[in-house]
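Chain A, query sequence.
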Amino acid sequence: MGNKTNGLLALLGIGALAYWKYKKSTPEEQQAVKDKINNAKDNLNKWGNDLKTKANDVASQAQNKFDEAKTKVEDTASNI
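Chain A, predicted structure.
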């Protein structure tokens, strides 16, 4: 339990230091931080959308393979 508490306190301290430094920075520096955050957010959203598209493609390919196999089994069964 002590490690979790220490970790949370360290994270809180880093956050407070970052907030203090941000508030004391110039408007240009603040805008640069905002731009970096927005850029990171956009990159993360793009990565997530690409991952979702790839997952849907794989699911579609798997469904097509399943449908082909099912058709073959049905054709074989009807010929017996």
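The chain has two helices and no strands. The longest helix spans residues 27-79.
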